[in-house]
Amino acid sequence: MATLVVGSIALDTVETPFGRAEEALGGTAVYFSLAASLFTTVQMVGVVGEDFPAEGVELLRSRSIDLSGLQTQTGQTFRWVGEYDYDMNTAHTLDTRLNVFEMFHPTLPAGYRDARFVFLGNIDPVLQLEVLTQITKPRFTALDTMNFWIQRKKAELTEVIRHVDAVLINETEIREYTGRYNVMRAAEEVQALGPRCVVVKRGEYGSLMFFDDHISAVPAYPTFDVKDTTGAGDSFAGGFMGYLDTCDDLDEIEVRRAAVYGTILASFAVEDFSINGLTRADQDSMTSRYTRLQDLARIDRPAVAGQQLIIEGV
Amino acid sequence: MATLVVGSIALDTVETPFGRAEEALGGTAVYFSLAASLFTTVQMVGVVGEDFPAEGVELLRSRSIDLSGLQTQTGQTFRWVGEYDYDMNTAHTLDTRLNVFEMFHPTLPAGYRDARFVFLGNIDPVLQLEVLTQITKPRFTALDTMNFWIQRKKAELTEVIRHVDAVLINETEIREYTGRYNVMRAAEEVQALGPRCVVVKRGEYGSLMFFDDHISAVPAYPTFDVKDTTGAGDSFAGGFMGYLDTCDDLDEIEVRRAAVYGTILASFAVEDFSINGLTRADQDSMTSRYTRLQDLARIDRPAVAGQQLIIEGV
């Protein structure tokens, strides 16, 4: 039982209307790993510079995250500077310094090649495919991407999409990738390329999931104080993949439950800056939010009395 | 058993990426009445000009809608011209000619004063309050509003809000009215003014409902071909209020079911221009969509096996 993630490891400087974080731990691989580590063993593939803080490594180790795929290279760790307005669905990038991430080339330690669950964070699709081909016998693979790759390497991205079981993607990105505004139509097109599962992430509106012929929706967890949405999608992916790694069957019921856990981990992530919200998640709080989401989304059967009256009314 | 609606009756000219309608039947009172008439008797209060097409009146009559509150005045019927881009959440108004609607003064026929359910469409809040005070003993009252009144008559609007049981409002409007971005916070503030129930309409993302201390979410019905979203909110209101009018108890369970019916009627409305989608709704198709929404939103309990594995994983 192990879930592999490849993606960025960053020091993020983020400003929102509710505060600011300076050079704080971030990046896809970090958010994903912390979320997934609540369910399973995580194998992390990524790169940091010599300046990466020791406390960051310590935190990941304390969650039993396997860091044998973490490279440390000469130079600086990837930096991202961004800000959010009240509409926290969209980040505005102020500065990106790829640093050691620019030349990142993921090579898997031998012990990672039999990973059963694989999440390809939004790196260059060429690298995503390289990682995928190094895995001997994956049980369930998923990818995320972003506008940068959709615009610059669409053919390569399409090639990776053909090889994964699931695509987890933002609403604006799936619209851009397919050229279709209607998300149902857009998801159908992505499914037609191969993936059984397409999860469309909609920020504060929750997510839609397309799995085989089924469509399901999970509302966002009702959060009264959203502080910083950085890492929400990666935390979703970590909860989603981590839960699946605990399942005997990867059927519709389990994939739906996985989307609920993804939603829950995302809700922790947005409650504070950097990873500070996410690291507060534990079994009890996850179970409590699961129950809350069930109640939030519950649709009761129409009343028989109501139906009779309806028929009279026509 | 009767539900009263006061609101605009219009001839709409609408262009979307998927087609165009010219001087077609529209307006809050029309959409609301057609939706609510699937559940109950509707009493309509509104005004048309001498040019209002006889077929419009015929259609409303054929649905047993009580038109004794429909005034016909010298002049032209209210005209609205608008267009939508692919993002059909926002209408762009190209032209508004109030015509006879400008001097509209709603006076209720004697037979309307004992209406139990009252929906105040987004007219001048001063008129909304006038209508409300003419009702002897309403059981459940609701209002909608729009940016125009929020900006120009906020104090008057607040006064009506204090007197109704429910506010049905768009997400952007409740943000503007309260000055709060977080919809949970915004809804809390509106509830604090008096209404037990606040429904935040979010277009293709569905709706959130706040009823006493409960929060619930209904996703939008998955529509693969949205043609024209004009009237979706009014159709929602019609399904919502119409269903409630059939209920013995106005408790949380029934109000939640009402929001599902609202969602269903809105889904019919957006499938075609003008009222052409809405008039296709019938008992069978509503029941089928109700079941579909239940399946879409269903959140299964977490598996016991999964939970055990989770505990091991930590």
Features:
homodimer, 314 residues, alpha/beta, UDP-N-acetylmuramoyl-L-alanine:D-glutamate ligase, nine-stranded mixed β-sheet, four-stranded mixed β-sheet, 13 strands, 37% helix, globular
Summarize the structure.
2 copies of one chain form a homodimer. In chain A, about 35% of the residues lie in helices and about 25% in strands. By secondary structure, the first copy, chain A, is an alpha/beta fold.
Write the layout of secondary structure elements.
Two copies of one chain form a homodimer.
Chain A: E1 2-6, E2 10-16, E3 19-26, H1 28-36, E4 41-49, H2 54-62, E5 66-73, E6 78-83, E7 92-97, E8 117-120, H3 125-134, E9 140-143, H4 147-152, H5 154-161, E10 166-170, H6 171-178, H7 183-192, E11 197-201, E12 207-211, E13 214-218, H8 232-244, H9 252-269, H10 283-297, H11 304-313
Helix pairs in contact in A: 1-8, 3-5, 6-7, 8-9, 9-10
Describe the structure.
The structure is a homodimer of 314-residue chains. Chain A has eleven helices and 13 strands. The first copy, chain A, has helices at residues 28-36, 54-62, 125-134, 147-152, 154-161, 171-178, 183-192, 232-244, 252-269, 283-297, 304-313; strands spanning 2-6, 10-16, 19-26, 41-49, 66-73, 78-83, 92-97, 117-120, 140-143, 166-170, 197-201, 207-211, 214-218. In chain A, α8 packs antiparallel against α9. Chain A is globular, with a radius of gyration of 20 Å. Chain A is α/β, with parallel strands linked by helices and 314 residues long. Chain A has a single domain (2-313), classed as UDP-N-acetylmuramoyl-L-alanine:D-glutamate ligase. Chains A and B meet through α7, β13, α9, α10 and α11 of A and α7, β13, α9, α10 and α11 of B.
